[in-house]
Amino acid sequence: MKKSLILLFMLIISVALLVACGPKREEVTPTDNGEKETETGSETTEEPAKPEKLIVWEDTDKSVALKPAIESFEKEYGIKVEFKELGMADKMRDQLRLDGPSGTGADVITLPHDQIGQLVTEGLIQEIEVSDDVLSTFSESSVGAQKYDGKLYGLPKATETPVFIYNKALMPEAPETMDDVYAFSKDFTDGKKFGFLALWDNFYFAHGVIGGMGGYVFQENDGALDRDDIGLNNEGAIAGAEYIQKWYSEGLFPKGIIGESGGSAKDGLFNEGKVASVMDGPWAFQSMKDAGIDIGVAAMPTLPNGEHMKTFMGVKGWHVSAFTEHKYWSTKLVEWLTNEENAKIRFELTQEIPPVTTLIEDPIIADNEGAKAVALQSQYAVPMPNIPEMAEVWGPAASALQTIATGKAEPKAAMDDAVKNIKTNIETNHPN
Questions:
Q1: Could you tell me which CATH number the domain at 163-311+387-429 has?
Q2: Which of 82, 98, 158, 372 is the most buried (most CB within 10 A)?
């Protein structure tokens, strides 16, 4: 009997040791966002619960490109996606301000990149985390446009920037340098027809020259823009302003393209066949073709200093709402909408040019003269600053450029005055 008890006791100890030394069972604990987190030993891997649906807000008249991406996402992940069209430039953020806090807003929205800073400041969109493999899909500048204060707040879906557009009947091929454009214009311009036109009293277009000559709006430090370091009156910016003034003072630009009506005046002259070339964006292509002009398109010719024009680039992106309860899957959707396959489909259906590097050499873009020119120029372009303080730049810069164009002020004095006004406006409207 005693021997049997001893054997039983040893058996119990053996079983206990096996249990203690065996593999740990997985423990599932809830995370803050309701997703499941699986812990195995010291390793932690998230297994987010899939939502029944995600809601996307797309730009007006652009959902034709969103639908196929949604269908493939639903098939891949089994999550239903609903969408709604809203005006991206104005309606989108206003609606998010209303619907986000109430829980009826979108999980994913699209925005022009220059609104990112304001929406981050207001707490309307949130930082996202994606792998380096995902980021390497896009051009470096387009990813930079999706950052604010060094943090990533979206992925780019489309880009646009001014390019060189010419009437092939008047200018058989695009010149390589602005010196060549200037020489052509001196011979061609007679007051009724013009060799080249640009809205250089508009800072959006003038930045190509000013930036290419060495000026800048806000200096970038460690991925963040420094609002206190403004380079619009440095040596390069003044050289750019002097170059701009030259075209007006020598009569190469008509007085009618200065001011608010300048754009329509320029467009009218070009579409009437009175202008050989212009600086304009891809939004102008169709109206020119509709006017019967056989257009050619190229990246902007290089400046007299041998540098490329640093045109402003606008980048449209996809962003995750700060109010979503499904950050992980919303981020997955953003990645899916911007991947190479869906970017290509978007271009085919909307002609919006994706900043996906592999598509630059794809025949769908390489064989499209306009798209290729925008893609090439985008490599030299800089994203418009997306910090809220940028709102204080446009007015003073435009005023300075108009006084330069009309000869009412010398470039240095005008640019000094612009920077002074910009700094005053920033201190007044954006106190630290």
A1: 3.40.190.10
A2: 158
